[in-house]
């Protein structure tokens, strides 16, 4: 089953490794496959519109590019949506839940805010005729990402029965179904992100089998076609004092390549396939850059399909 045939792709990883960029690239790759995509940013984050050259639009679904829409989820707005739907009266919601007693109480319920955000996505997913084939969730970083994915089961264990339990089960039925939901872990070829990726995979528990891929982001090309050639050049460069700057560059390239090779080796301990995305030599990414990353994703996926 191709990843584009899932309903939900959840992307998580250490902060700063390019999760949001990977979400945008996945969306473009899916759009090329003819899918209508909605990118859901969590915890009020709102970076997707700017990546596509669009203004921010908050808790509203807006088109980011052909076939791609996005919106920013907040637990507060999602909770208000959910409770008003249950209570059928906005003023009653404001009287009961918008006060200084209930606010701290709701914040203290384990997993509630994470569940409500996922629940908002599931509510859209269950809406008849809603024009979306694939939901891509830009989940919180590492530990909080795990908490969000396990929030439905946490709420079910906490409540045992009742409306919150029943709604949590509806969300769990989608999140924990490998035919509906896949997970992507994003890392960069550095020691700390790799450590967190390995730890994150271990903490996923029963969801480990739904990890569709490990995205190794910001991978540099080899400095030379033959690594032995670089090793052979270093002794010669050291013979001349005037080669100091060139020697420093060569040694930096060698160390960077060694870090990347070590990262690849450590990630092979995980049973999920690894997808590599190239390093882009500027930070203000535009649509053309995202298209390059989408092409790399499709190439990696096609290679994975051939190997199977």
Describe this structure in words.
The chain is an alpha/beta fold. It is 52% helix and 15% strand. It contains 12 helices and 8 strands. The chain has an 8-stranded mixed sheet, with helices on both faces. Strand 3 and strand 4 form a beta hairpin. Helix 1 packs across helix 12, helix 7 packs across helix 8 and helix 10 packs antiparallel against helix 11. The longest helix has 24 residues. The chain is elongated. The termini are close together. 35% of the residues are buried.
Query: Segments where pLDDT lies below 50 for 5+ residues?
Result: none
Helix content: 40-55%
* Span between termini: 12 Å
Secondary structure: number of strands: 8
Order of strands, widest sheet: 3-4-2-5-1-6-7-8
Order of helices and strands: EHEHEEHHHHEHHEHEHHEH
Overall pLDDT level: 84
Radius of gyration: 22 Å
Sheet with the most strands? 8 strands, mixed
Per DSSP, what share of the residues sits in E-state strands of 2 or more residues?
Answer: 5-15%
Task: Briefly characterize the structure.
With 308 residues, this protein is α/β, with parallel strands linked by helices.
Essential attributes:
308 residues, alpha/beta, 12 helices, 52% helix
Q: Topology of this structure?
A:
Layout: E1 8-13, H1 19-32, E2 37-41, H2 48-51, E3 62-65, E4 68-72, H3 75-87, H4 90-97, H5 102-108, H6 112-125, E5 134-138, H7 142-159, H8 163-175, E6 181-187, H9 191-203, E7 211-219, H10 227-238, H11 244-267, E8 274-278, H12 287-307
Helix pairs in contact: 1-12, 3-6, 6-7, 6-8, 7-8, 10-11
